[in-house]
Write a structure and sequence with these properties.
The protein has 297 residues and is α/β, with parallel strands linked by helices. The protein is built from eleven helices and eight strands. The protein is globular.
Length: 297
């Protein structure tokens, strides 16, 4: 009887140890498999996050498609999204002046991706339109998150390396395909977001609007551009889907030129968001339209 009692106690203790071990392993597996909770300001950090994290993160974008990055005002719902995130990524304090104070207010680390970038023009805040800068911004995102989630480090850093390789390939393609063009003049009915590309690949970028996507051109500026397009017998002008397409249509009708789109990635249409068009895909579409519009061989 005493032997049986001791045996029962021994088996019970052993079962308890086994159950505790299983519970600990389940918690470890859950921790290792748990996704990073990431909040991002808009589409540019969203598409970078999709490239870096793939399916290792739950990503919430604060600004809805076509919201207007320069006029966006965050809501209490946005504050809660940031509060519930492990990280909050945004482009810069210049592009999103509300971001840092909002993230500080809810106690979540807010990280501006535009730091320690290799190709900076202080007058042009569209840093990500340089492929070197885009790779660096993605690298910043990957390094910070992989330090806090070391179990995901190989995946995250591996994705960052692949993205950097894509940026190097884009740079080579732009250099090759834009080297021999009939014209280097880009008449753009939109804001001045393509300065990095123009400088890097020796293009003459002439935007009708200013540096902000919401700014409106003056009538005299429009008239001068139409006259120049006619005088140079320009076949194509460029526009942005998200910025006043009617204005581009008017100038095309007046000048006789056709319209091609360029994409700055910071603000997108609902359709583009649903397709999850990536940064690389947008830049390839830009290249295709530049080659066509500038008559490059």
């Amino acid at each position: 009887m005493e032997f049986c009692l001791k045996r029962i106690i021994h088996i019970t203790a052993l079962c308890a140890v086994i159950l505790l071990f299983i519970a600990c392993k389940e918690k470890e597996i859950e921790r290792n498999n748990s996704k990073i909770k990431v909040a991002v300001s808009g589409y540019l950090p969203y598409t970078l996050a999709k490239s870096i994290f793939a399916d290792t993160a739950e990503i919430q974008m604060l600004m809805p498609p076509a919201a207007g990055v320069h006029s966006f005002e965050p809501s209490p719902k946005n504050a809660l999204q940031i509060k519930n995130a492990d990280f909050f990524f945004y482009i810069s304090d210049r592009i999103e002046p509300w971001a840092k104070s909002l993230s500080d207010g809810v106690g979540t680390i807010g990280i501006a991706l535009a730091y320690n970038l290799p190709d900076i023009n202080p007058k042009d805040p569209h840093y990500w339109m340089s492929f070197q800068n885009a790779a660096a911004m993605a690298g910043n995102m990957a390094f910070i998150t992989s330090e806090k989630f070391p179990q995901l480090k190989p995946v995250i850093l591996g994705n960052a390396d692949r993205f950097e390789n894509e940026m190097q390939l884009l740079d080579k393609l732009y250099k090759q395909l834009l080297s021999n063009c009939k014209t280097r003049d880009i008449y753009h009915i939109g804001h001045n977001a393509f300065g990095y590309i123009a400088r890097k690949y020796n293009l003459n970028f002439q935007p009708l609007n200013g540096s902000l996507s919401e700014s409106e051109p003056a009538a005299a500026q429009m008239a001068n551009m139409i006259k120049e397009i006619k005088d140079k017998k320009t076949d194509y002008i460029f526009s942005e889907k998200i910025i006043n397409p009617k204005l581009a249509s008017v100038i095309a009708a007046e000048s006789g030129a056709k319209i091609l789109n360029l994409y700055a990635v910071e603000d997108i249409t609902k359709e583009e968001f649903e397709k999850e068009t990536s940064y690389t895909q947008f830049m390839m579409m830009n290249l295709e339209n530049l080659v066509k519009g500038l008559a490059c061989n």
